[in-house]
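agent> call fold_tool(seq_1)
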Amino acid sequence: MSQSEGENKHKYDQRLITDLKEYVEKRIKLFSLSVAEQLSLMMALTIQKFIGVAFFVGAMLFVSFSLAFLIGDLLDSLSAGFAIVSIPMFLLGYIFFRKKSTRFTEHFQAKFIEKTIYRFEKDDDKSSNGG
């Protein structure tokens, strides 16, 4: 092999290494952007759900007060009305507090990973097709 061929091969190897480094850096950046996009989407959905739950809780609070006053009126004992309305709420609260929800957590994590990988593969397909 002549010296010029060796020099050309060295330049080609250097360019290949540079391109490979650049490719890896761009893939890491793409992955981090995909994760950031998924996190921001989940945060927006969480805030929306939280606001919906807050309105629902407020409505349920007014309904329970109304029901307690109604039952209290029927029984001629306001405290009995509130006690009767609070018993099912207490039982439901106790059940939800004691129950461990690993299934929900695992489902949430699996969905997040699935969406991130799907987005990553979709972006990879676009880049390999020249789109």
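agent> call fold_tool(seq_2)
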Amino acid sequence: MKKIVFALLLILCLCSCTKNQIELKLTEITFTAELSYFNEVYVFDGHIDKEVTLIAKIKEPEGLQDLKLTVNADGITADYKGLTYTANEATMPFSKIVSDFYGPIGFLCKNQSALEERDGEISGKFGNAEYVLTVSPTGLPQKLDISSQHIAVKFYNVSIKED
């Protein structure tokens, strides 16, 4: 009888130990991202610092190549070959796409205690947009879907940023 009770306690302990919540890692990371918006695809190298500022350098499409975007809670600044411009949605429509991409990430970074992760997926709502963020077992982003805004992002070569 003691062996059966011990075996049941061991199984219970193993089951409860393996159901850890993923610790989300969205800051101090570097990555390459492919952002799809309707029929358009944007590819950029980016990193997010500990202050939740996204720095993105556009690689594709060719017409936007080398455009550097700095995105944080205060807005978007675009830098292209030494020309700097602070954007808003009315003057630079592309900034709406970037804002919609950044919004859930900034929100998740600041509200991690309220997250509900299920099998590597975190879903929720930011403003009027519903999102689903898929993360690896180590908490690094793999995919972000904001279907209501027609945005899908795939993350590649994600790593923790070295100082």
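agent> summarizing second result for user.
The domain at 21-160 is CATH 2.50.20 (outer membrane lipoprotein receptor (LolB), chain A). The chain is about 20% helix and 45% strand.
agent> awaiting next instruction.
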